[in-house]
What we know:
Blueprint lengths: L1 E5 L6 H5 L14 H6 L14 E7 L5 E7 L1 H4 L4 E5 L22 E2 L5 E7 L2 H10 L1 E6 L23 E3 L2 H6 L3 E9 L11 E7 L2 E6 L4 H12 L6 E4 L15 H13 L3 E4 L2 H7 L6 E9 L5 E12 L21 E10 L13 H19 L3 H7 L17 H12 L12 E2 L2 E13 L5 E7 L5 E4 L9 H13 L6 E4 L16 H23 L8 E3 L2 E4 L2 E4 H5 L4 E9 L1 H5 L3 E13 L5 E11 L6 H20 L5 E2 L4 E2 L17 E6 L23 H13 L10 H4 L7
Parallel strand pairs: 1-25, 2-13, 11-12, 15-16, 20-21, 27-30
Antiparallel strand pairs: 2-6, 3-5, 3-7, 4-6, 8-16, 9-14, 10-11, 10-13, 14-15, 17-18, 18-26, 19-20, 19-25, 22-23, 23-24, 26-27, 28-29
Helix pairs in contact: 9-10, 9-17, 12-13, 16-17
Amino acid sequence: MAELMMDAPYRPAALDRAEQGVLGRPLDRIDGPAKVTGDAQYAVERAPAGTTYAAIVGAPVGAGRVTGIDAAAAEALAGVLAVIHDDARMPAGGSNSQNLSTQGSARIFHLGQPVALVVAESAEIAREAARRVRVAVDEVPGRYDVAAETPVSDHGIGFLPTIAKGDLEGALAASAVTLDRTWRTPVHFPAALEPHGSTLWWEDGKLTVRSSNQVIGAAKATIAKALGIDADRVRVLAPFVGGGFGGKTGVGPEVILAAIAAERIGRPVKVSIPRAQSAALVHHRSDTVQRVRLGADERGVIGAIAHESVAAQNDDSKFLEPVPFGTLPLYRGEVRHFRTDLVRVDLPATGAVRAPGEAIGSFAVEGAMDELAEMIGIDPIELRRRNEPDVDPLSGKPFSTRRLLDCYTEGAARFGWSDTMPTPGSRREGEWLIGVGMAASLRGNFTVNAQARVRLEADGRATVECDMTDIGTGTYTILAQTAGEMLGMPVDRVDVRLGDTDLPPTAGSGGSFGAGSSASAVALACEDILVELARRMNAAPDELTLKDGCVRAGGREATLAELTRGTPIEATGKTGPGKESKATSQASHGAQFAEVAVNAVTGEVRVRRMVGTFDIGRVLNEKTARSQILGGMIWGISYALMEHAVVDVRTGAFVTPDFGEYHVAVSADVPAIEVNFIEEVDDHANPVGAKGVGELGISGAGAAVMNAVYNACGVRVYDLPITPDKLLAGLPAM
């Protein structure tokens, strides 16, 4: 096994030579044809023979205890095979991204939590039978109104500790300019296109789970633990996943319930959560209250920065939204205070949703920077330039790579940003008020463990295998490009197998670490193969030239197929964090620009154009990277202007549980968006030098829109999303 932990900067020489010229190119996804023709197999498609269907019965109240379940009416319905409610392994709560839900408890943590599972011959029968199950409860008053609960600082959950560096109050009092503002963001749903679902079956004492899941290695361990069996008795398959956005990083209760059901009835079970029910069974992003305080000198150089927040969680889960995570290394400030307090509620679990922390924390810190620039009377970009740190301002570590200043320059030029900001409300086109805004983007970069197996087949093709998932991000393609570049062959000569826990383990899709880690493992495996090829060519590895399936060295030439000598050459690569990961501060960066129009009569907001320039290390595929950023920027528009999961504080029910009421940005809301990259390979991050992409685009995008809305009409909105009712009273007269 070729194993390389990131103890020092490293870069495979074959990637620099780029003889094949495929890595980084904007190639089409190699899995695209399978998806558009229907050959791609998702979690609840092509069920095994004899498959049954399951429906979940949810708790009818949000707090209390289950005292009894009457399943007689459901069991009497023709086609019902079982109603399961008496197994101690049953999870008591919905899914979350941090820990297994409490099992075998009668306590009700939230409305709609699973209390029974109905299994039937058809999905229609299962749903009807579920409606007939009667659940008796002992209800108690619930904590459904986050604003009514008292936050606590000493809570012991989440991965960000409280940080208090320096005398904040003293530094603010001594500052020439201070700002103290509070922003609020609502609950957000992950809202992936493919519903959460799984098909499960037992065979010879082993469980196979075909699931819509982002991190199947962890899922395998979680399922085994929940069922009380050895992990080698569980196999998880997820070759194709229709989006996840963090909502599929954990194991949902439906998986454990269906596994119990399949074991009991001796037949495969398929379960798919209806969209409205996913509001209760799938974790969401917490609503937040965020107070940002800045203290600066006359030039706007920040001496004190504080980002103090409140987020919610129920009693069954340990995740806490890391609200200030993106703020930690972003700007100068010797005095730095960061804290996230906790409010306990009787609502479904909060968990990791795309860019936990940065996606919503950027609204507050970037809104504060925009306001500070106006107070001082300088351009928002110039303010950010004056506060660009030389090293990580919290840890003192050097940055691995940081091209944020270049992102400002390049993005501003492409957008046509003027050094002089228009006076808010001064630009008009008929009844439309026009404004511009910008924001910085930052998403922390993580180095994680990953393995991959590469096999040079006897016919000269290559096969790449690992349990990494492709959730629509382009993983199949970038791994094929990595192997193709390293071994000197076109991508149509590379076969990629993913999404199977029988394959070498990775950390899966989440945290924007999947591409860099899995591609690095592939590259390291290929390096081992190159060593063997060089031996067979009587040459050193760095003397090889590989292109289009041919190997040349010292005036000799052979095809890859000839060098295999009829037997495949196989190697496994492994990478992970090391000393270098701890010695440098690593992140992806960007600058986002937006132009909006606000109707002076109705308060309607229309985003007219956006430009984003980003520093993501090595670009593995320009097209898939652009698509990831583009999707994040669109989601930023959605967060800024429309997404809001509303809770009925009387019952704990979500009154916007599906796409009929939970509004997301659609084609008509999305303008022309330009995405471009400033590429600098980051040898400190991982062997292929790629940094996180998937979550960077959403970070700062909504804040750029928010700042543009203010510039258009002169109304600052601190309670997101920005809807017409929040603008109307402050709009200038026509």
